[in-house]
Specification:
The protein has 12 helices and 14 strands. It is of the alpha/beta class and 322 residues long. The structure holds serine (SER).
């Protein structure tokens, strides 16, 4: 593999794990991590790192030239809950960074682009169960508007200029190594941390709010798989529906109780409830499965086993260090 990869937003929830996986696959010096500020020790010591404001096309170009970058993974975004508080900032960050990268690809400075969309590009008028690849898309959040618009820009650059841009509509991504920030699905990460630490969790969504979710390992595999697929397999150039599991706060709490029987959950829905209610509950991702062979590995039970075991080991290690 002769690719040199630049990751924008490498210190975020997905970027952190994506960087380590890509460095293992492509070699440490062929994967340039970047973010608006420095990352943790593992990030900084495991390969090249550059400070990049992803809204600056000039700065991205400088780094692309410096390392002869061939592929860009654009993992920068303001998520749904934060963008509702700062609508124009969210729009600007999400759109300016995408257009900067698409322009660099149009100008042939880079050959391939990855940009994530989200289930948030659907809205209250979309079918909630088995939401199809192509259907009504009228999002009610700024984040969703930026994702739908971004999808069309990707498709436009592909159609008009032959830009090889690939995209996935992520469901809520659940991880334990790096925390998400400002999303509506963040509860499904916070719940594990609070369960282990305090044995209780106050949920900002109501007990029966069903949302599509996915374990980080599956999300990383999907991301790399779509980027490595032959170009003729990528038939959708807006963004692919992607799914693994769908569950409610009540169901994830019951799963956690199997490991921590005394665990208690309470519910105090806030403004994020309306965001969650506007999104699909179960997504039909048959196109991704058929076109480029997507398959998920983790269900709610295996994901919970993995996270609880990992977090307990981490707690133990911390205690031993004290
Ligand atoms: N996890 C994202 C959010 O909650 C959805 O893509 O904003």
């Amino acid at each position: 593999m002769n690719d040199t990869i630049l990751i924008l937003g490498a210190c975020g929830q997905i970027g952190t794990e994506l960087t380590q996986k890509l460095r293992a696959l492509y070699g440490r010096d062929n994967v340039i991590a970047s973010d608006i500020r420095e990352g943790n020790q593992e990030m900084m010591s495991s390969g090249p790192f550059e400070i990049i404001d992803a809204t600056s096309k000039e700065r991205i170009f400088e780094v692309v030239e410096k390392y002869k970058v061939t592929q860009v993974y654009l993992m920068v975004a303001m998520l749904s809950a934060t963008a509702e508080k700062h609508p124009l900032k969210g729009w600007d960050l999400n759109m300016t960074s995408l257009l900067a990268v698409l322009e660099l690809a149009r100008e042939k400075h880079i050959q391939k682009v990855y940009w994530p969309s989200s289930m948030a590009s659907f809205g209250p008028t979309s079918p909630k169960i088995n939401t199809p690849q192509q259907t009504i898309m009228e999002p009610s959040t700024v984040y969703g508007i930026s994702k739908v618009a971004g999808e069309h820009w990707c498709n436009y650059y592909h159609e008009k200029y032959g830009v090889d841009v690939r995209s996935i509509r992520y469901p809520g991504i659940i991880s334990w190594k790096t925390l998400p920030g400002g999303g509506t699905t963040d509860y499904a990460v916070d719940i594990y941390f609070d369960a282990i630490k305090n044995g209780t969790y106050e949920c900002f969504l109501s007990e029966n709010t069903r949302l599509p979710m996915m374990y980080m390992d599956d999300a990383i595999n999907a991301t790399i798989q779509i980027m490595q697929a032959d170009a003729d397999k990528i038939k959708t150039r807006t963004s692919y529906n992607l799914a693994a599991i769908s569950f409610t706060p009540k169901e994830i709490a019951a799963e956690i109780k199997k490991h921590i029987p005394e665990f208690e959950i309470s519910y105090k829905p806030d403004f994020r409830q309306a965001i969650a209610d506007s999104w699909p509950q179960i997504i039909d991702d048959s196109h991704a499965r058929k076109d480029w062979g997507w398959q998920h590995k983790f269900d709610l039970t295996s994901m919970t086993n993995d996270i609880v075991t990992s977090l307990k080991a981490l707690e133990k290690q911390k205690l031993e260090e004290v």
